[in-house]
Amino acid sequence: MTQPAIKDFLASEFDGFEVQIDADHERADMVLNRPPLNVIAMSQREVLRQVFEALDAHDDVRVIVLRAEGEHFSSGGDIKGFLEASPEHVSKLAWNVAAPARCEKPVIVANRGYTFGVGFELSLACDFRIASETTRYALPEQNLGQIPGSGGSARLQKIIGITRTKHMVMRAKRITGAQALEWGIATECVPDDQLEAATRSLVEELRRFSPLAQRTAKKLINDNEDSPLSVAIEMEGHCYSRLRSSNDFREGVEAFHAKRKAVFRGE
């Protein structure tokens, strides 16, 4: 898709969310806006994936933020929609929800209030989770005679281990933002009135770095999650060697010696 086509697509009206581009700060926000609980419809998930892909290709965007209007991030999916969806549509749910992880750019999610079901699964696919103290995380599918279907239990087990994952999934237990920080789910946990400021601060922090180094680090870390240690170390060495020939690395070294701020261009 060309840049004009990407911008035209992102200017569309979307069901259940909107897109905001702040080119001056190289930031894009995807804002869930189906009050009061920001329920995520079945059809919405595929469009969310398409928007993540478009933002990943947008020249004016360095960092993507997923957030929501109101006091709750999302209570989860449209329960009735599960009964109406075709098997083919359901089979693509995990792929659509994993879109933030596939983005080359860093993705931040700002959570507050209910962050349940697919809302939690989307958050787990992001790189950085900033939780308000009001956040309650849960995978409540057992209450419906189901299990998480979009990567929730799988991603969670990688982060917190089998015992705590069984506690959350098999008992449908909720945990607080503070507990999520303690368990390694959340990157930060802040008072609710500081959530936007903490998100903005992280966006500005990530913008300081080389886009090329950021993309390389994200892909390397994600790809190495299931690799043996020896393979992971070898892949890290290959990526390090490639970055040594980049203009951004040269700029970083020269800026360090000149005691000035580096200007990275992603080359």
TrEMBL record:
Organism: Salinicola lusitanus
Family membership: Belongs to the enoyl-CoA hydratase/isomerase family.
Protein name: Enoyl-CoA hydratase/isomerase family protein
InterPro entries, per database record: ClpP/crotonase-like_dom_sf, Enoyl-CoA_hydra/iso
Pfam families: ECH_1
Entry's transmembrane regions: none
